[in-house]
């Protein structure tokens, strides 16, 4: 029997992973690598280095969600709309819903772990006869990329303005100005950007250290608050409701971030879905506990909500410890975790943008799809993301409400991409489409988990555009819905004028083969 050797090549012109035969019928080598060589001559390397192991993958996913930290600095919105009860039960519902969604997406990641994730899979599982697979892929790609740009902007802005709030706390003569927050945000952004460019190999170490501090600092917070703060009653925490239009809870996204690192994760078919589900499970426990602790230890709610620092949690910590220094130290712990999340989100979005460009989803695909030959990072894609985030922060100088509206796009866009993806995958299974499951499988519970995920996502997407404060005015209106609509409109314009000519996604299952002997 003749021996035929095959290797896996990634053809980024059409988004399909191909198995290329390197020998002809006479056993002589063919020019199977010519496409690869041509791509390298254009600066389009075939792949990134695989160097990320399981523990850093779990830590990466957990750090990226920045769960308890995000709830600590933003829980006031849920508190004002629905009250403590809404926060408690809303967080519990979101935890279960996010877990079902992560499991559903994890099953797809196990079948075909790909940097493109949402836009690749939406094209792969799109229902036949309803537009083309490329249409769904391009629309989903636009939504996902814009959502992830907002994800990057969030921790940068929060850490920058937390530092500004701490200056307000400690320096009585300081008068906060919007442009101060913008400058601090840029400064916070600089360190993770430099690390992503020049210290890519430290990602493993940073994620492990970040995972440790993510957990250790949470324990410190819980111990300090539960031992030093005066307690609210259980009636206040579990029975108090306020009238309001918004849904309070842990509207957590970004657990898909680790998928966008697929090309750099070893044994991605197993490790990526496992790390997604495990990180959502762990972060859910920490977040739910944080909500309970903050509500029991809130002290004077009016004083917290009217804090001149802009962050009620700073006042909660100051009152609990009776020390500005202690409150500052605790907030700096939280800020460090936010910087780690920023490092992770920059790594994830740069890979997603790079993959989308290589599949010709973005203009100038050769430029934005390039990998630096020495640094081995998608440097142009990273530069595009950083430039957009820097420009977004300028909006803060003119209107904080407008900036919040854009930042709120993160949850709206990513939850929307999850809903489309889970729905298409569910319908694909229902109609008996071709499917070879990977090592991570939901088994007989798969359909039920998919349905619960879809119901949860529809519910949460309905609530996300509602105003956070009533009565709604031009100044406090939630513009997430209109901005999300604008992104969809831009994607549609791109598709009908240019995208349908340049963009394509795989429409069949990819086969991953390193070496086959027959």
UniProtKB/TrEMBL annotation:
InterPro entries: AA/rel_permease1
Predominant place of localization: membrane
Keyword Transmembrane helix among record annotations: yes
Cited Pfam families: AA_permease_2
Record's subcellular location: Membrane
Bilayer topology annotation: Multi-pass membrane protein
Keyword Transport: yes
TM spans (from-to): 134-167, 179-199, 206-229, 276-298, 334-357, 377-395, 402-427, 447-466, 478-498
Gene Ontology molecular function: transmembrane transporter activity
Highest taxon in the source lineage: Eukaryota
Keywords: Membrane, Transmembrane, Transmembrane helix, Transport
GO cellular component terms, A-Z: membrane
PANTHER family: AMINO-ACID PERMEASE BAT1, GABA TRANSPORTER (EUROFUNG)-RELATED
Protein name: Amino acid permease
